[in-house]
Amino acid sequence: MTVKTQTLSTTEMQAAEARSDRWKTGLALLSVYVIWGSTYLAADIAVETIPAFMMTSVRFLLAGVGMYLFLLARGVPNPTREQWRNGLLTGAVMLGAGTGGVAYAEQMGVSSGLAALAVAAMPLWAALSSGLWGHWPSKSEWLGLAVGMSGVVLLNMEHSMLSSPVGAIAVILAPMGWALASIWSKHVNLPGGLMTTAVQMIGGCIATALISIVMGERLAEMPTMRSVLAMLYLVTFGAMVAFSAYTYLLQKVRPALATSYAYVNPIVAVFLGVLLASETITGFGIVAMVVILGGVALVAVGKTKKA
Predict the structure, then answer these.
(1) C-alpha–C-alpha distance, residues 250 and 269, integer Å
(2) What is the mean pLDDT of residues 13-19?
(3) Structural domain of residue 284, as residue ranges?
(4) Overall domain count for the chain
(5) Is residue 126 scored above 90 in pLDDT?
(6) Is residue 281 part of a domain?
(7) Which of 168, 230, 277, 298 is most buried, by the most CB atoms less than 10 A from its CB?
């Protein structure tokens, strides 16, 4: 009788734990889908009165240093000198060029929805970047690359992109930097977990601060409360909450599910831009979204087959 009771108790505990994991996974997916999708509009609002690279530097200063100190207080080991170097360098490229480039493009007139569509091509650039380490795309991945790049070309024919050539260049280069640093990160010694995120955000802070100084960015006026609140949203939800959720997903679910945000973020960003910021998207933009996401899907299928 006792053994049976203990068995039932263990089964019930396992079932409760499975239900809890499902809830956590669902909330984590919702976080990376909605929060990361909304960061494009938040960045667009933040750069209204705060220069793009200055805003991005402050964002990662608060988020990166805050997370780093929190992790140290929780007993997480301090990274080694090599790990600090690797984390700062990859973070400088990933967040300095990637996130900073997107914010700059939006400051130059690229809408938040179109910026998100351009960034959706990141997996395509990642597939190409892998070739630098000898992992060239398979035939089906090359097909996906061709389709996806066609979508990028279509995207650049959208009116908002044509009217801001500097912004268009920035928003195309941004996912290239993010992709390169993401692949690079897999081949260097990093501290792991959230500590890697914290160190890379500090690297992004330093890189964007230097770019801001070189470009001579200055506050032309006191930032509006609207811009400040948008930046704080990027610090807390965009960096800390969503990154933590993404790290949880990488540990708990298949990589394909964890990275499925690449398909959802552009749709969320376009919807929020139209709903809250009166942005518009033309037929070129809609077709480009379908083609880019189709190319990303083909690359993902190609990776699965190759594996």
Answers:
(1) 23
(2) 65
(3) 33-306
(4) 1
(5) no
(6) yes
(7) 230
